[in-house]
Specification:
The protein is an alpha+beta fold. It has 12 helices and 21 strands.
Length: 434
């Protein structure tokens, strides 16, 4: 339709909007026999008799390793096996915190590189992982905590990580809704402000890596449990599944809380105990909390999602257990702890609760690299910090598998450190005490 104004100039009339087009378009799409959408992941197929690499675990780590093997090393005859579904283990159950403000030089260097990779991950995938740089504030309620934070800040700054010790006044400015009062049961004396702290959509990270890996020829086999690992002359030769035996040139295990169980199939005893770790979210609120706030003293951490929910987590359960059940006792503990910091949440309704299984090592650092079995590689012992390490773990473990040599960044986390007394003690750098 063409109209003319009073001065004779041509005017283009806006085309009438068809508000019914979208529902009919969706209906047509849903009833179509051939979907126009591109399939992101491997369609269900039979297992091949042999793969160059078999990765046990289709979480963030397993898919990241497969992605880097295919993209950067040209190794594409790879199968990722999982007894459940893509990202359905600890990847789906974590609270999505990303940070690098650790205590040891080895830990800070490792997680610093992971945070850098996270910042460009959406662009690399062409897939939005909802990365948000929001900062992390860890609270100090004692003189001992202040001394520890001063130490961590110095180590972080020396290694290029943005962390600094802040006083109560600065804390009030960073988090106006936080209860910073001298008459509190546990007065806040200071805090460690980590400007590089961030969050991301945990599911999207696993989906992005799996999508990129599958596009390059990697096979993703969900609901395919590894029931045994076959060893011959000290070398891994394949894995047993309910769908048949599969030969493997090498095997990588990346199974989080079940690390000890899977490693025992290969005859490897790991210094790991697994504990449930619980979390919960509240009903949505208007945006009022930007940073991630944690208090190791009262065993709680909290941040607000982009949907307005308050994510609340804390320390692990006090007993070893391979179970993802939630308990009333832990929910009461988390609720009372978070009310010490944010009393206004007293009227909040809990929306969801869940649990994961954490694989804790004695020094609170992961086990990465070679194992006593030839061509069997370990990606284990992540405890509560596995999600934040996903990108750098995928990169370094893929390099190890492709070259047979452990990158310098992960050599401190080798299994033999427990036998040579070279532990990497990160027990003091958790967001909530375990």
């Amino acid at each position: 339709m063409m109209l003319r104004g009073r001065d004779g100039c041509k005017l283009i009339a806006e085309k009438p909007k068809n508000y019914n087009a979208m529902p009919f378009g969706l209906l047509k799409y849903g009833l179509s026999k051939e979907y126009p959408a591109h399939q992101h992941f491997t369609p269900k197929t039979d297992l091949k008799p042999h793969y160059d690499v078999v990765i046990i675990g289709a979480g963030g780590h397993g898919t990241a390793i497969a992605y880097h093997l295919a993209k950067h090393h040209g190794i594409r005859n790879v199968a990722v096996l999982d007894k459940g579904y893509l990202g359905g283990g600890n990847t789906a159950r974590n609270t999505a915190v990303i940070r690098s403000n650790y205590l040891t030089e080895e830990g800070v260097n490792f997680y610093r590189e992971s945070v850098k990779l996270y910042q460009n991950l959406s662009n690399e995938f062409g897939y939005n992982i909802m990365f948000e740089n929001r900062g992390q504030l860890t609270l100090a309620h004692s003189d001992a905590a202040i001394r520890s934070f001063r130490w961590r800040a110095e180590v972080n700054q020396h290694l290029g990580v943005r962390s600094e010790l802040v006083d109560p006044q600065m804390i009030r400015e960073l988090v106006p809704n936080l209860r910073v009062q001298d008459d509190a049961r546990f007065p806040i004396l200071g805090g460690l402000w980590h400007a590089d702290g961030a969050t991301a959509r945990h599911d999207a990270v696993a989906w992005g890596y799996a999508k990129g890996a599958c596009e390059r020829g990697v096979e993703l086999h969900q609901c395919t449990e590894v029931t045994d690992v076959r060893i011959s002359n000290g070398r891994v030769v394949g894995v047993e599944t309910p769908r048949g035996y599969v030969e493997a040139g090498c095997v990588v295990q990346a199974v989080a809380g079940m690390s000890s169980v899977v490693a025992e199939m290969a005859g490897i005893k790991l210094p790991i105990h697994s504990y449930p770790l619980q979390a919960m979210v509240t009903q949505p609120y208007k945006p009022l909390l930007e940073p991630h706030v944690s208090s190791p003293h009262v065993h709680v951490y909290v941040h607000q999602t982009s949907r307005g929910e308050f994510v609340i987590g804390g320390g692990s359960d006090p007993y070893a257990l391979y179970n993802t059940r939630a308990t009333l006792e832990q929910k009461e503990s988390l609720a009372s702890a978070v009310l010490e910091l944010f009393p206004f949440l007293a009227q909040a309704k809990m929306l969801r609760q869940w649990a994961g299984v954490t694989d804790m090592t004695p020094d609170y650092s992961p086990i990465m690299g070679l194992s006593p079995v030839d061509n069997y590689y370990l990606d284990a012992g992540w405890g509560t910090w596995g999600f934040k390490a996903t990108p750098i773990c995928g990169q370094t473990m893929a390099e190890l598998v492709a070259t047979g040599r452990a990158p310098e960044l992960i050599t401190p986390f080798a299994l033999d450190r427990f036998y040579d007394f070279r532990q990497v003690n990160e027990a003091g750098a958790t967001a909530a005490s375990h």
